[in-house]
Amino acid sequence: MEFGFTPEQEMLRKSLREFAEAEIKPKVQNMDETGKVPMDILEKMAKLGFMGVMIPREYGGLGMGHIARTIMLEEIGRISAAMANTLQIVHLGISPIVTDGTEEQKKKWLPLLARGEKLSTFALTEPTGGSDVMGIQTTAKLQGDEYVINGRKCFITNSHLAGVLGIVAKTGEGSKGLTAFVVQSDFPGFRPGREENKFGLRGCNTGELVLENCRVPKENVIGKEGDGLRIALSAISNVGRPGITCAALGIVRSCLEEAVRYSKQRVLYGKPISELQGVQWNLTDIYMDYEASRLLTYYSAWLRDKGERCDAENAMAKFWAAEAAVRCAKKTIDVFGAYGCMKELAPQRLLRDAELLIAGAGTSDIMRLVMARKALTVA
Question: Residue 101 phi/psi, 5° resolution?
């Protein structure tokens, strides 16, 4: 049993931390104030191969696996959960092509996605709900060599940025009635709708997608007709959910660093507040949450790299890290006192960002349902 990272993974973490500190950190305040995505940062990420971390080398990616992706997203999330979420959704949009795409589909889309020439997303959630996958209303009807798709997707990350999108639509009834498609943003009948104005994860684009008689070539079906439910649930469980987890883990790490740093600098009663027992309890609670979240997050990534099914472990890590991010951000504000509420300081932003991660890729209640299936098998 090995709990350490390889020298290569440690080197990756060091280089990612340097990148996040130098390139992303100076943009964070402006991102929070304007809500705009810093496209120049995405371009730099693309040149460094961040988009293709999960894409096999033969298609132009890095092929580094889930632990490497976890390191990447934690280090970026430590500086900006918004930027980490933008990147992880790119990975989510790419995932179905990697796992279920034909050789022709992989050769067509993976190299340009690995290079960041096109960004990606995966669109499942609709006004009728996100966790209720079978309740989606978007339809796809085969007409000759094309499917005609009609519907509306909402709360889609990268909605206004993505050029290659995974779309799930109804082609029939029941569990085999959903199909996954690759849709390009320049297809007739496709357009972004409203862009949302969120109180957290600002600088991460979220909005609607509208498909009105959008014509999609038959060869853009991922897998085969009727595979949509399996493909969607697998991508969300193994890529989307862990991506949210990593962003949350980054927030918890940032909370720990911010709270410890401030407590050593702030002097009350003639000594740093880090020497006050009440403050120390907050610090130890954040520290425990970070270590627990970290172990759950990297353990589930290790299982995915081994190719083992780990739905419950993915759900457990996401549940704990996302809820911990909210707890720890609140405790960080408590350590900072009134300063924790100031817009120019990090604690209040960390809390706003953390709150938005709770519902992403399945609410905490959905995570409990996933874990319950495994818990009921232990006896």
Answer: -75, 155
In the chain, the largest separation of any two C-alpha atoms, in whole Å, equals 80
What pTM value is reported for the model?
Answer: 0.97
Q: Cα separation of 170 and 150, whole Å?
A: 10
What is the domain partition of the chain in residue ranges?
A: 7-114, 120-225, 230-375
Q: DSSP for 146-168?
A: EEEEEEEEEEEETTTT-SEEEEE
For residues 254 and 80, is the Cβ–Cβ distance under 8 A? no
Q: Could you report the average pLDDT of every consecutive run of 10 residues in the chain (379 residues)? A: 92 98 98 98 98 98 97 98 98 98 98 98 92 93 98 98 98 97 98 98 98 98 98 98 98 98 97 98 98 98 97 98 98 98 97 97 97 96
Residue 223, judged by CB atoms within 10 A of its CB (0-12, 13-18, 19+), counts as middle
Residue with token string 């353990």: 299
Sorted by sequence, the CB contacts under 8 Å of residue 64 that are 6+ apart come out as 12, 53, 54
Instruction: Identify the three-state secondary structure at position 21.
Output: helix
User: First and final CA of the chain: distance in angstroms?
Assistant: 26
Joined tokens for residue 256: 């720990």
Fold designation for 230-375 = Butyryl-CoA Dehydrogenase, subunit A; domain 3 (1.20.140)
User: What residues are paired with 183 via a beta bridge?
Assistant: 165
Alpha-carbon span 300 to 54, nearest angstrom: 16
pLDDT at 372: 98
Could you identify the residue written with the tokens 């964070």? Answer: 28
Q: Which amino acid is at 48?
A: L
CATH 3.40.50.1260, domain 7-114, yes or no: no
Give the number of residues written for the chain: 379
Closest CA to 122 of 85, 150, 164, 87: 164
Work out the angle at residue 235's Cα, subtended by the Cα atoms of residues 185 and 81, and round it to the nearest 5 degrees.
80
Please state, as a whole number, how many other Cβ atoms lie within 10 Å of the Cβ of residue 18: 11
CATH number given to 120-225: 2.40.110.10
